[in-house]
Write a structure and sequence with these properties.
It is found in: Membrane. One of its GO terms (cellular component) is plasma membrane. The chain crosses the membrane at residues 7-28, 40-62. It is a multi-pass membrane protein. By secondary structure, the chain is an alpha+beta fold. It folds into 2 domains: 3-71, no CATH class; 88-141, Nucleic acid-binding proteins (OB fold (Dihydrolipoamide Acetyltransferase, E2P), Beta Barrel), CATH 2.40.50. 41% of the residues lie in helices and 24% in strands. The protein is built from 3 helices and 5 strands. Strands 1-2-3-5-4 form a 5-stranded mixed beta barrel. A hairpin with a 2-residue loop joins strand 4 and strand 5 (136-141). The chain is rod-shaped. The relative contact order is 0.10.
Length: 147
C-alpha cells in the first residue's frame, strides 16, 4: 500500500470522525497519516502497518485519561434527558394549567413544565419530574425536606 493509499484512508477516517460524536476515529486517522509518511520514505509494508498500529494504539491509550476528565467520570453516563424523570427541581414561574405556563429549574436549566394532576403550583415549590413529552416536563409537587 503506497503513501497515497494511507493518505486516502486517513481522510476517510477523518470524515468518519467529523460525522460521529466521538474522538475514536481521529487517532486512527493520525496513525494512517503517519503510516503514509513512513511509506513516503520507502519503508516496507510491514513497517507501515507497525507504525499505523503503534501510533493509533498509543494515541487511544494516552488520550483516555484526558477524555475521562473531560466527561467528568470513569463510567459512561446516560443522556441527561434520559435521567430527567425522577429528578427534582424548583418552580421558577408558577405552573398554571389555565394559562398553560410554568417553568421549573433542574440543575441550572429551566424547563417548560405542566402539573401532572392539573393543580396550580406556586413559585419556589419543590417538584419531581414524572414524565417527559418533547421539551415539556410533567411534575408533581413534593414536600420540601430542607425546611
Amino acid at each position: 500500500m503506497g503513501y497515497i493509499g494511507w493518505m486516502i484512508f486517513g481522510v476517510v477516517l477523518l470524515v468518519a470522525e467529523i460525522l460521529t460524536p466521538t474522538f475514536f476515529f481521529l487517532w486512527f486517522s493520525i496513525g494512517s497519516f503517519l503510516a503514509g509518511l513512513t511509506a513516503m520514505f520507502s519503508f516496507s509494508l510491514g513497517w507501515q502497518v507497525l507504525v499505523f498500529a503503534l501510533s493509533s494504539t498509543l494515541l487511544v491509550l494516552l488520550t483516555r485519561p484526558i477524555a475521562r476528565k473531560l466527561s467528568k467520570g470513569d463510567s459512561p453516563k446516560k443522556m441527561y434527558i434520559d435521567g430527567l424523570v425522577g429528578s427534582r427541581g424548583r418552580v421558577t414561574v408558577e405552573i398554571n394549567p389555565q394559562l398553560e405556563k410554568g417553568l421549573v429549574r433542574i440543575e441550572g436549566e429551566d424547563w417548560r413544565a405542566a402539573s401532572l394532576n392539573g393543580e396550580t403550583i406556586p413559585v419556589d415549590s419543590l417538584v419531581r419530574v414524572t414524565r417527559l413529552e418533547g421539551t415539556l416536563i410533567y411534575v408533581e409537587r413534593i414536600a420540601d425536606e430542607s425546611k
